Amino acid sequence: MALVDIPGSKSITARALFLAAAADGVTTLQRPLRSDDTEGFAEGLTRLGYRVGRTPDAWQVDGRPQGPAVPQADVYCRDGATTARFLPTLAAAGHGTYRFDASPQMRRRPLLPLTRALRDLGVDLRHEEAEGHHPLTVTAAGVEGGEVALDAGQSSQYLTALLLLGPLTRTGLRITVTDLVSAPYVEITIAMMRAFGVEVTRQGDVFVVPPGGYRATTYAIEPDASTASYFFAAAAVTPGGEVTVPGLGEGALQGDLGFVDVLRRMGAQVTVGADRTTVKGTGELRGLTVNMRDISDTMPTLAAIAPFASGPVRIEDVANTRVKECDRLDACAENLRRLGVEVATGPDWIEIHPGPLAQGDTEIKSYGDHRIVMSFAVTGLRAPGISFDDPGCVRKTFPGFHEAFGRLRKDIVG
Ligand SMILES: O=C(O)C1=C[C@@H](OP(=O)(O)O)[C@@H](O)[C@H](O)C1
Ligand SMILES: C=C(OP(=O)(O)O)C(=O)O
């Protein structure tokens, strides 16, 4: 049995940083994720004049309800979409001129529904090159608030950004959402806003956020459920292999813990306890058809273990995975084909037909995407000879992944 200590959630750390920066008082974040995405977020806040004190186990943020402490800043958001979408929104509530840029891939990823909504709310926001993409400049003069419509069919992060902004506006926000993917991430946002003293109300597609600001607090960050998926999948593909992740149980905020339900449907033994989750490989791994719209960060995890299933695996409703750190449907298909597996893809689906894997060495093409590397590391448990062209890209969410996964391999495979 392996007990795996998973680092903090990227999504929760990013939200906690926003909320702490916007709150009235000093907030302590316990067990934040230390990775490229979250360190980029913290560095962005520092650029905007917020004080972020960092020790290995806790980060402390001096909140500024009035917004950034500097009249001008240049912020590099690296490869993190939470940083690239949440920070310009936070800056809009302040007073000053703030320019944001990001990595080449993040520059390609979409932003337009959010920047349109901000403009509809009166924010002066200019895209420097392509409309709806970084780099962009916000000339901030506070936000009055009011009604706004939003299409979050490509990314829930647009809605999260507006929800987080709501309490910083003068009159609050009433957001009408026309479409929504990755819905459980919005639940994380609402639960965390509650922890910082704000109650969002929802009537169908309308989200109402009151004005009045946030209250500082001490906030403990859950382990990252998407990261845990690689370790749970490792147990599922290893007959008799057992992995327990403490800190992720029945009350977990993250929808991605639902990946264990997919493993259960495939034949793994899954126990979700009050404060921990255990997956045990039974030797059985059935194929299935599954809709992953709510938990699409775990699509590559499932695609990477699909070759070991006893029947086809079809993953549906994941169009938005084409606009992540890479086009994940194409990246999974390409790498599975390199392994000799038969795969078909469509605009929003992938279907994998298990069969014997190619003999010999296979280099996995990472496309700079942490999830492609971490997912195919799981395939590597049963397919010796797998290597990666860019193993270091795991730094986005889990710099210590290879060491941790190596320890797990010793524990459950030998
Ligand atoms: O809000 C968040 O923290 C996230 C939302 C999801 O993105 P989309 O809503 O763009 O699918 C997820 O894929 C991403 O890793 C983190
Ligand atoms: C899509 C991801 O990240 P983000 O959108 O936050 O850059 C991810 O971590 O899989």
TrEMBL record:
Its EC number is 2.5.1.19. Pathway: Metabolic intermediate biosynthesis; chorismate biosynthesis; chorismate from D-erythrose 4-phosphate and phosphoenolpyruvate: step 6/7. Keywords: Amino-acid biosynthesis, Aromatic amino acid biosynthesis, Cytoplasm, Transferase. GO terms for cellular component: cytoplasm. It is found in: Cytoplasm. Its main location: cytoplasm. One of its GO terms (molecular function) is 3-phosphoshikimate 1-carboxyvinyltransferase activity. Residues 4-404 form the Enolpyruvate transferase domain. One of its GO terms (biological process) is amino acid biosynthetic process. 3-phosphoshikimate binds at K10, S11, R15, S155, S156, Q157, S182, D297, N320, K324. It catalyses: 3-phosphoshikimate + phosphoenolpyruvate = 5-O-(1-carboxyvinyl)-3-phosphoshikimate + phosphate. Monomer. Belongs to the EPSP synthase family. Catalyzes the transfer of the enolpyruvyl moiety of phosphoenolpyruvate (PEP) to the 5-hydroxyl of shikimate-3-phosphate (S3P) to produce enolpyruvyl shikimate-3-phosphate and inorganic phosphate. This is 3-phosphoshikimate 1-carboxyvinyltransferase. The gene is aroA.
